[in-house]
Amino acid sequence: MIITTCDNGGMKLGEKIRKLREKKGLSQKELADLVGITQQAIASWESGKKKPRYDKLQRLAEIFKVPVSYFLEEERPKWDKNAEYLKSKVIPIAIYGEAQAGSFGGYTYPTPEEYFPTPEAMIKGLPPERVFWIRVEGHSMEPLFQPGDLVLVADPSYYEVKEGAPVVVLNGDGELTVKYYHHDAKNKVVVLEPANPAYKPIVIPEKELYTGEYLFFPVIAHTKLF
């Protein structure tokens, strides 16, 4: 059985904050006092008019006792391949390597190690040669990605890396990791945030990005094999 998840959106950040606040029995003013901001700021977050900075997300995570990644990743619907993609043409898409979910590791091959039969609808209209599969190993992205899962990534020149979305990152040593992407403009860093709170984020200073040492590939779909 193959179950896939795709980048189709879901519960928004503001909804998550509101539901956590209500579950904890806090008013907007009480939450604002705990975070150290105004009630108007909380209202703007919950309405979706504005988004909190990363340091404020960290404070919210402390207050609600959830990982920061809970706020970064929108809940995404799941489809059974046989139901959603039955009408879609199946094409072979290359598997190029393996990414460690914990730290940088894994490997890439210059040529495909094998091909995976992929419903054409999953590649979002991108040229097939601009997408490829990567195996996930390690536990830092659980429960979103489990060891052995496949993530479908796109050429970033064809598909934009999105704030709070999963990415596969390739470093200058040819090692890969998979994390949530967050650009902290205030502190001039990119934070690679794990889903599993038992793991620490990887922080990359902006100045290191300009050297071209790191490449960020957006994850556009995910496949679990059962």
Helical segment count = 7
Helix content: 10-25%
Class based on secondary structure composition and strand pairing: alpha+beta
Number of strands: 12
- Number of domains in the coordinates? 2
Explain how this protein is built:
The protein has 226 residues and is an alpha+beta fold. The protein folds into two domains: 13-72, Orthogonal Bundle (434 Repressor (Amino-terminal Domain)); 78-225, Umud Fragment, subunit A, CATH 2.10.109.10. It contains seven helices and twelve strands. It has helices at 13-23, 28-35, 39-47, 54-64, 69-72, 81-84, 206-209, and strands spanning 2-6, 78-80, 90-100, 107-108, 114-119, 131-137, 150-154, 166-170, 176-184, 189-193, 202-205, 215-225. Strands 1, 2, 3, 4, 5, 6, 7, 8, 9, 10, 11 and 12 form a twelve-stranded mixed sheet that branches. Helix 1 (13-23) packs across helix 3 and helix 2 (28-35) crosses helix 3 (39-47). The relative contact order is 0.18.
Helix and strand topology:
Layout: E1 2-6, H1 13-23, H2 28-35, H3 39-47, H4 54-64, H5 69-72, E2 78-80, H6 81-84, E3 90-100, E4 107-108, E5 114-119, E6 131-137, E7 150-154, E8 166-170, E9 176-184, E10 189-193, E11 202-205, H7 206-209, E12 215-225
Parallel strand pairs: 3-6
Antiparallel strand pairs: 1-2, 1-12, 3-4, 3-5, 6-7, 7-12, 8-9, 8-12, 9-10, 10-11
Helix pairs in contact: 1-3, 2-3
A few lines on this structure:
The chain has 226 residues and is of the alpha+beta class. It has seven helices and twelve strands. β10 and β11 form a beta hairpin.
